[in-house]
Amino acid sequence: MPVWLQVISVILGIIGTLFGIFGISAYVSERMKHKATKRNKEEDEIAELKHQKHLEELRAVIREENKGIKDDIATIKDNLALNTKGTVTILRNDMKKSLDYCKHQGYVTRSDKINWNELYNTYAELGGNHFKEFVNGWKEELEAIPVKEREEIKKSKKKLNEDK
Asked: For residues 88 and 117, is the Cβ–Cβ distance under 8 A?
């Protein structure tokens, strides 16, 4: 075999070997990257699952701890509703008594009217409208009672005392 053919075959062999080495090296490198990416993804998924499990455990503990608070809040709401209902009843009773008193004396002062209207507004704001037809009628009755100022009342009382 001629020397030049041997040199060419050696050169081609070296080139083939180099391409083989680079090719295998690139393949192994890409394979390692793929495996590392896959492993990282699996580790991330496991970490996320652990995190979710930990959060659920914390939520369960918080729910258990809050159970008593929720019961207390429900009791407070029930008591508040009863308190509001009682307050509405007391306000309605006070409005009726005040109206009856003013009707009995035959007049109403401005301060009586202001007080009665404040009771009425508070009554309405608290939801006291289930006796609306009566309470609104009471309001109309109060408006129809003549208004006397304090000076007029004092003069009337003085005159009554003088007449005796």
From this structure: no
